[in-house]
């Protein structure tokens, strides 16, 4: 199977490494081995090692599940607040066009 290469901007790569570090810190704080975290997340230990390195090839849902299990707060710890924020975001999204269209610009006639 081919390994896909993912290129991240420096900002995104730094953010992912920070997120990975918080997950690793949470795992160690709980006293879990990588094998134990892998079992709880439902993935192999290799995937947990990739998460610890901040690999962009791991699915974001896997990162979120690992983070939730070790106590890294994603948005808020309160489920009701999370539901409310999600509903508000869906309302904002409903106000936007269903798809984005390229803007067609006419060339300016700036020859005076």
From TrEMBL:
Pfam families the UniProt entry points to: HTH_3 (PF01381)
Domain HTH cro/C1-type: start-end pairs: 23-51
CDD domains attached to this UniProt entry: HTH_XRE
Highest taxon of the lineage: Bacteria
Family annotation (InterPro entries): Cro/C1-type_HTH (IPR001387), Lambda_DNA-bd_dom_sf (IPR010982)
SMART domains, A to Z: HTH_XRE
Protein name: Helix-turn-helix transcriptional regulator
Organism: Billgrantia aerodenitrificans
């Amino acid at each position: 199977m081919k390994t896909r290469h993912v290129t991240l901007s420096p900002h995104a790569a730094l953010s992912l490494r920070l997120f990975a570090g918080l997950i690793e810190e949470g795992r160690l704080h709980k006293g879990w081995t990588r094998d134990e975290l892998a079992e709880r997340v439902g993935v192999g230990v290799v995937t947990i090692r990739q998460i610890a390195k901040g690999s962009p090839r791991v699915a974001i849902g896997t990162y979120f599940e690992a983070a939730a299990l070790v106590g890294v707060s994603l948005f808020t710890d309160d489920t009701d607040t999370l539901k409310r924020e999600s509903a508000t975001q869906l309302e904002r999204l409903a106000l936007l066009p269903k798809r984005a269209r390229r803007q067609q610009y006419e060339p300016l006639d700036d020859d005076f």
